[in-house]
Amino acid sequence: MAMAIFAMATPALSLQPSLPLHNVMLHPCFSTPLRFKAHSGTGIFCVLQQQQQRKEHHDRKRTGVDWGCDPLSLENGTLLKEWLSTEGLAKQKLELERVESGGRGLVAKQSLRQGERLLFVPSRLIITAQSEWGCKEAGELLKEAGVPEWPMLATYLISEASLGRSSHWFPYIATLPQSPTSILQWTEAEVGTWLSASPVRERALDCIRDVTETYKDLQATVFAKHPQVFPAKTYTLEAFKWAFGILFSRLVRMPSLGQLALVPWGDMLNHSPQAAAFLDSDQSNAKAVVFVTDKSYESGEQVFISYGKRSSGELLLAYGFIPPELNPHDFVELELALNEEDPLYDAKLAALREQGLSSPQRFPVRKDGLPEQLIAYACLVVSPATIPAHFSQMAEAATQAGTGLDIQSILSRDDETNAYELILAVCENSVADYSKFLESNEVQHVDVNQVGSIPRTSRHQMLKELAVALCQAERRILYRLQHILRTELRTLRSKSTGDSFIGTYGKKRSNGGLFGLFKWNVDFLEKY
Ligand SMILES: C[S@@+](CC[C@H](N)C(=O)[O-])C[C@H]1O[C@@H](n2cnc3c(N)ncnc32)[C@H](O)[C@@H]1O
């Protein structure tokens, strides 16, 4: 689903870190920019199909898109399975049911052992950017325009959905939610209000704007030029957001094919942060999509896969939910910046830029420690060094782990202390922002225990629950970090010799320096 599933199939959307950080496992989001410049093309019409489509949709709801179903509908799922069976889907050991987490999900019809291969959705029943278009002219125009994979697939979905029953994919499209959950369901104002304390806010706004801009580009360069093929009433921004919402929450990149795909039936599997199973093309046969159970299941239990090692923020953006249980893949971004009053500001900024970094710069932090890169960046910020080569070394260490930089040979213990204090101050400010939000009247009594359930009492309530669950998850990491930093600072200060930079240059310190610090076992902090 944007399943990360499948590399589980690698999920399609994620918070893109601005840096390649070794200890943060992130997945490619839009690996190619969403916006693109298309070339003009010629038009052939699909008039008959459009007339039929207009007739079929005439009586449908006029708000939102005309296709898809209620997110809890099981009837369409049953029809989908019947259709897939007639098209060659093997007998299933899984059944579509209403489930507590995720609305609908696949449940074991019998006990399943660990290591069992399931699904076997024939490859010809999956949708990829190479799939045949019901309206061939539309496909040709997009290919001619050089439209990238994501907007190509989004347009494909709209095109097929708008054909109604005459589309080959009708039974599948009928099972897709009419309002797919993802950040695209939120308005920019809602993001601004509810995610104000979290760095995810910027990602969310970027994501909404990217999709909107992509639509505008496509509209100007292709749709508007061929209105008979892409009728304005059908190819609306709303339809485009629906299609992107479907892609965000269901598209998977299958590791062995390296291909993005929608997998009917397979995309009814929900995510668990504890799961390690993922969709992939059958290696032995390569003609079906399968997954291998990573644990045994009793009959009647919901079967989960993993959409990837995704943080709560990433899950919220792509899939529109946050798991209620502790998510081992959570991280939060901390932002550091050079001090503009620093007389060495220009030299430090130049060193950062040489490494493709900037000021400010964000770094993801997980519950088990600080990335070396963040520490190196903090060292650069506080460094009084006068040797420009040291700036370059620190900036390089801020881009990647394991550069072998001996910070202790560059910074005194006092500078090291300053670097910790800087990180602690940033961390404390961030915690204060989260706490202010979480203690505000609007959300202080929100109960997030039901955050994974569908449907919710109201949309307003849903946004509040998601925002609270996200902020709690992110603040939890910062609490740990504060604890670690305060403890270490106490140790550093108690040992402080007041050594000057010159006095300590080149000496090794007994505590192993900054890079040794975060190898601690921090499980005792689980109480947070
Ligand atoms: C690939 S679909 C899975 C099938 C989906 N439940 C359905 O009924 O169509 C992904 C969507 O399922 C929901 N989902 C998946 N895992 C979930 C979970 N653990 N908790 C809550 N919702 C989940 C989210 O709405 C997500 O966008």
UniProtKB/TrEMBL annotation:
InterPro entries to which the protein is assigned, alphabetical: Rubisco_LSMT_subst-bd, Rubisco_LSMT_subst-bd_sf, SET_dom, SET_dom_sf, SET_RBCMT, SETD3_SETD6_MTase
Domain of life of the native organism: Eukaryota
CDD domains (UniProt xref): SET_RBCMT
Keywords linked to the UniProt accession: Methyltransferase, S-adenosyl-L-methionine, Transferase
SMART domains assigned to the protein according to its UniProt record, in alphabetical order: SET
Residue span, SET domain: 92-308
PANTHER family linked: RIBULOSE-1,5-BISPHOSPHATE CARBOXYLASE_OXYGENASE SMALL SUBUNIT N-METHYLTRANSFERASE I-RELATED, UNCHARACTERIZED PUTATIVE METHYLTRANSFERASE
UniProt protein name: SET domain-containing protein
Organism for this UniProt entry: Sphagnum troendelagicum
Lineage: Eukaryota, Viridiplantae, Streptophyta, Embryophyta, Bryophyta
